[in-house]
Structures are given as structure tokens and as C-alpha cells.
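Exercise 3.2. Students should predict the tertiary structure of the chain below and write it as C-alpha cells, then compare their answer with the key that follows.

Predict this chain's 3D structure.
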Amino acid sequence: MQCVADADKMLTTMHRTSDNPTARVFFALWPEAAGRNKLAAWQAPLKRLCGGRAMLGETLHATLVFIGRIEQARLEALQLAAQEVGAEGFELSFDEAHYWGHNHIVYAAPRHVPQQLMQLVDALGQRLTRHRFKFDQREHKPHVTLLRNARWTDASLPAMQPVCWQIRDFALVQSAHQDGLEGYRVLARFPLSHSASGG
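Answer key:
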């Protein structure tokens, strides 16, 4: 599969480790603007309850596999590994808001996780392992961070209007900090095949 460069306008910064420039990267579900905007509509009512800082609507995403910092020279090999992933597109429905007290984050999550999503995460991990990339191998719990520095109790957050993302590809994303804020740049997209149901 051919990766497609994305034109999203995001911040980017390369750091240096010894003499080699590096980038901090991860793979994610990065939907079209309409999908992001619908989920961003959750932020205002949740912020009234929990306070905190809302993530920029144009950067809302669901991380698949976190790589971390790698040498810039290995980015091409990372993209080639991702091109080998064979997986189907699917629909991902976010229908619950939750709070993580340990890091003060409010996030959106799906009540039901599609099998195709877990197959995508597994396939990506297998290709990365085969190509000797190190990555975070904790259990995958799909979510989208909505608020940071929030405060809430153990009580359930109110029900929200479900938001469905049509997932047709996944992305390699670079993150960088500038002026204390985190910015993102989509480096490449990798298309998923059409499922039998047309997802």
C-alpha cells in the first residue's frame, strides 16, 4: 500500500540526540475534520463540569501504537513497515466519556471495541517487531483525550451524543513541544482495505 503525505498544518520540531536528529512519533487514527469536530462538541459541556484545558479540535486522535523518539533517518523504514500492514476499514463509535484521576484527563471511549481495530493494532505491532522497532506494548485501550488538567470524582460523567468515525486509514504522526504546547504533524497515511460491509 502506498502511503499518502498529509497536508495538515501542524507544528514540527526535530531534536538532536548526539549527532543524529530525532523525531517523536506514533501511529494513530486521525479522522477527517467532520469526525474531529463532532467529538470536539463534547468538550464544552465536559469542561464546565471538570475544568481543565481542552485539546485543540483539529488534533483529536486515537493513538494506535506509541513509538517514541527515533532517529529521523529511520522514518522511511518505519513507513515501509506500516505499508506492509493488511487490515480492514471499520466504524468506531465513541459513546462514553471517562476520567483518569492519575493524570487528570477526560477522554472519549467506545463502549464496544471493533474486532478490526484490535486486528489493526496487532498487525502493526507484528510488522514493527519484524523490522526491529521498539514501541510501547501495553494493552491497547482506544480513547481520545479531550481535556487535560481536569478534576472530577469517581462518579460517572454524563451521557454524551455518540460520535461515529469512519476509519479508512491510519497515520504516522510526529509530536513536538513548542512554547509549552504540544503540536502534531501527520507525516504519512496508510489506507485500509474495504470491509465486506463497506466500512
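Discussion points: Confidence is low (pLDDT under 50) at residues 1-18. The first strand starts at residue 15 and ends at 17.
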